[in-house]
């Protein structure tokens, strides 16, 4: 933690008063579970808080920066900016991945490079920073790290294929789109999901992913590409 504290101070001018918040933000559930006797806290609650403050700050940024944009357009932009793949990219850019505390099993399975884990870490850090320093410091940090990259478009752009499929199919009216898990494989810490996307019980595409969310996106991508 000392190296992390030094990095935060040098790179971002941040000095945590409550270091335990910082430790919790960088502790994955797998590490806490492997050290149950020590009663170590993991970062899921801080992730919840960080997600909320991130949404607020990005929403305010979009509202102030793009006064001509309607609500729908701003919502699309925000969803692109705060996708787990984009947040994982910012976590890597900050060097946060090096300080993440993972369980041995998660480490061996490549968890340190997994977008879901790193995106959650970035949000958990924001939650810890909010509690320790307040929302203005969180905003200052995001304006150092995130906003400049958003303004030049230098972030990981990931197509939201679920939205693209929905828009493609609903041109002539509402259509019920359903995603169904058809298989799960692998150990609990490293599962692979296979998902099928259906309309009126007709399968349009299948996809695999390390999470249900990723598998759904893969299935939607398959369906979009098949329909083009």
Examine the secondary-structure arrangement and name the CATH architecture of the largest domain.
Orthogonal Bundle
User: How many distinct helices?
Assistant: 12
Helix content: 55-70%
Question: Could you name the CATH homologous superfamily of the largest domain?
Answer: Ribonuclease III domain
Largest sheet: 3 strands, antiparallel
Q: How many domains, in number, for the residues?
A: 2
Rounded to the nearest angstrom, the radius of gyration is 19 Å
Distance between the first and last residues' Cα: 50 Å
Shape: flat
| Low-confidence regions | none
**Which band does the percent of strand residues land in?**
5-15%
Would you give the CATH topology of the largest domain?
Ribonuclease iii, N-terminal Endonuclease Domain, Chain A
The top level CATH class name of the largest domain: Mainly Alpha
Can you lay out the helices and strands and say which pair or pack?
Layout: H1 2-12, H2 19-25, H3 29-34, H4 44-65, H5 71-81, H6 84-93, H7 104-108, H8 115-133, H9 135-145, H10 147-151, H11 161-169, E1 177-185, E2 192-199, E3 202-209, H12 212-227
Helix pairs in contact: 2-8, 4-5, 4-8, 6-8, 8-9, 11-12
Plain-language structure description:
There is one protein chain. The mean pLDDT is 88. With 228 residues, the protein is mainly alpha-helical. The relative contact order is 0.12. The chain is built from twelve helices and three strands, in the order H-H-H-H-H-H-H-H-H-H-H-E-E-E-H. The protein folds into two domains: 2-151, Ribonuclease iii, N-terminal Endonuclease Domain, Chain A (Orthogonal Bundle), CATH 1.10.1520; 161-227, Double Stranded RNA Binding Domain (2-Layer Sandwich), CATH 3.30.160. The chain has a three-stranded antiparallel sheet with strand order 1-2-3, covered by helices on one side. The N and C termini lie far apart (50 Å). The protein is flat and about 55 Å long. Helix 4 packs across helix 8 (115-133).
